[in-house]
Amino acid sequence: MIFGKSCACAPSAEIAKVARKARARTGRCITLSPERSIIRLLGGSVSRIAIANPIGLSRPTTLGISMRPTIAELEAFVWTARLGSVQAAARHLFLAQPTVSLRLKSLQDELGVKVFERSGAAFKLSPEGEQLFGHAISIIEELGRMRERAGSTGALHGTVKVGMPETFAVACLPRILKDLASLYPLLRLELSVATSSRLEDELREHRLDLAFLVRPSDGAAIRLVELGRQEAAWVAASSLGLGPIVRPADLQDCQILTNPPPSAMHRQITDWFSAADVKPRRLDFCTGQMVIAHLVQEGVAAAFLPVKLMEASLAGGRVVKLRSVPDFQHASLCAGHRVGGGTAEIGAVIAAAQRVLEQVPFLLPAAGAASHSATG
């Protein structure tokens, strides 16, 4: 994300003017921290975006001494931290790598602290950098909101690293990509398809910017937007002669396929059996839900899968949907990003997913009857 030149920096002359006016009113020499200078010039309030400086990250600026980070330097810092390398940040910002390196060096010189530590080829935030990261995100997010209010969302560009479960990708991704391409032609997605538990780990480790998650954990580090609930059920080839109702004891000796732990699918299956004090004797693991679905069709095993994934097989009669006793609770499908890591680009992807989910019968109705939960 690159902001316009009018917001790209805090010019010395403008900061000097602010300081001179304050001095004329108070008769005192005024010092302005970099964050306060930037927000003052943008016409905003410091309290509005929670700028704080509890550990003295930024040194005060006295009149005539230029020591203030620019928005461009903060963007270089944020995207290097998010993507883990200067090269990746440069690609995202459509800049040359030396330009990003120079901005990072200027930022460190101006703040008087080291914001990154090297870990091999990757960049890792230093303790001071961790503290600065939240402040920098606040400034950039506020600028994004200002730009949206000004009606310039069509200028969104750069790359968003997005992860999603396999079933969601198959059902919704084509329409999401078309929606985004029509509204934001300069916005690019780097896609990762995996189980929700794996995607959640990648989100926490800054390898993803946004993830669509099924039955996410309650971790405080991730901000979740609930999109709805998705039906899943026990399914098996009709040739196996199971059902129409199945209890844990009915499936104890049946071969069952599931995603490996700690996936949501594995947790739901093991919890269901454990509640009845039954242990399945043939529980095998497979990372791909599409592969599991194919093996179910071929009569190899039973599985607990999203009903949407098995729609065609169920309609053709090769596979049957089994009613579970006891029943499963619905599991939510959410969009998640790291707390403090929201951007206008991430918001645009979430909004596109919400629009597509209104058109595609992927989720249960909002007031639908309780049945089965989702896996991912």
Q: What descriptive keywords fit this protein?
A:
42% helix; 13 strands; alpha/beta; six-stranded mixed beta sheet; 376 residues; disordered N terminus; five-stranded mixed beta sheet
Would you kindly provide a written description of the structure presented here, covering whatever features stand out?
With about 375 residues, the chain is an alpha/beta fold. Helix content is about 40%, strand content about 20%. It contains 13 helices and 13 strands. It has a six-stranded mixed beta sheet, with helices on both faces. The chain has a five-stranded mixed beta sheet with strand order 4-3-5-13-6, with helices on both faces. A two-stranded antiparallel sheet has the order 1-2. Strand 1 and strand 2 form a beta hairpin. Helix 3 crosses helix 4. The radius of gyration is 26 Å and the shape is elongated. The two termini are about 30 Å apart. The relative contact order is 0.13. The N terminus and C terminus are likely disordered.
Strand order, largest beta sheet: 8-12-7-11-9-10
State the helicity in percent bands. Answer: 40-55%
Structural class designation? alpha/beta
Main sheet summary: 6 strands, mixed
Low-confidence stretches: 1-16, 28-66, 367-374
What shape does the CA trace take?
elongated
H and E order: HHHHHEEHEHEHEEEEHEHEHEHEEH
Distance between the termini: 31 Å
Instruction: List the total number of helices.
Output: 13
Which radius of gyration do the C-alpha atoms yield?
26 Å
Average predicted local confidence, pLDDT: 79
Give a count of the beta strands, DSSP E runs of length 2 or more.
Answer: 13
Strand content: 15-25%
